Amino acid sequence: MDVYLPIANLSVNGLWIVALGGLTGFLSGLFGVGGGFLTTPLLIFYGVPPTVAAASASTQVTGASVTGVIAHSHRKGVDYRMGGVLVGGGVIGSGIGALLFQFFRSIGQIDVVINALYVVLLGAVGLLMASESVRGLRGQAAATQAPRRRHHPLVASLPMRWRFYRSGLYISPLAPLIVGICVGILTMLMGVGGGFILVPAMLYILGMSASVVVGTSLFNILFVTMATTMMHSLTTKAVDIVLVFLLLIGSVSGAQLGSQIAIKVKPEVLRLILATIVLLVAFRMFLGLFYQPEEIYTLYPL
C-alpha cells in the first residue's frame, strides 16, 4: 500500500509507517520515552528528509504519549506537580529551539545538526544506561541504590525549595525547570519527546522515585510535543500530516501494550534493552554522517 507524503515529496509503504508507529508507541509505554529518538532516525534511513522527519515525529509522539499517561495515571505513577514544572520549562525550551531550528536551516546545516545531535546524545545516554543496568543485573545495584537516587549536589544548592510528594523530593523547582528547558530545545531540534534524556535526568540528577519516573516523563512529553508541533506548524511548516496520521494509527495501541509489560519486567532489564536500542541507533546515525546521499540536493516546498 503505497502512499504519497506531500511535504516530504516521497512515496512510501503505508503499512511500514504504521508498523513503525506501533513500535514507537510500544517504546513509549514500556520505557517512558516518546519514541521519537527511534522514529526520526528510521524515517531518515527510509528517505524522509531530516527536517520533515523531525517535525512530523514530534507530532506523532504526542499521540503515543496520551495513552501512556492514562495507563500510568491509573496506578498513581504520575507526579503532576513535577510534571507541571517540567512542562513550563519545555514550552520555554521549544521557543528557543524554534529560533535555533530556523537559524541552522537558514545556513543550510540543519540536517547535519540533527544527525550530529543524535550521535552525541544517544551515544552518551546509551553508555550511561548500559553501564548502570549491567551493574544492577550483576547484583551491585543493591548496595548503591540509595546514593544513586539522591539528587545531584548542584540541585541541593538551588534556592526556594518545594515538596514534590509523589517523587519523594524536597528540592528547588529551578532544577526541573532547567531540565525541562533543555528537553524542549531537543524536542524542537530533533523531533523527539525527550524521554531518552529526561528519564536519566529525573533518576540521576533530580533523584526522583523510580515508580513515578515513566508516567511523569510521558506527562511532560505530551504537553511539550504539543507546543513543539505548534511551533513547527507556525515556523518551519515541515509537518507532513499524512505521515503523522499513519504513525498515529499504530502508536495508540502500541503504547497500551508497552505500559502493561513495563509493570511486569525488572527495571534493570528494561534499561539494558533501551540502552542497546539507543546505542545501535547512535552507531547507525554516526555512519550516516559519512555517507554521501544518492541525491546531494533536496528541494523543500515553500
TrEMBL record:
Pfam families: TauE. Keywords: Cell membrane, Membrane, Transmembrane, Transmembrane helix. It is found in: Cell membrane; Membrane. It comes from the Bacteria. It is a multi-pass membrane protein. One of its GO terms (cellular component) is plasma membrane. The keyword Cell membrane applies. InterPro entries: TM_pro_TauE-like (IPR002781), TSUP/Inactive_protease-like (IPR051598). The chain crosses the membrane at residues 12-38, 83-104, 110-130, 169-197, 203-226, 238-257, 269-291. Belongs to the 4-toluene sulfonate uptake permease (TSUP) (TC 2.A.102) family. This is Probable membrane transporter protein.
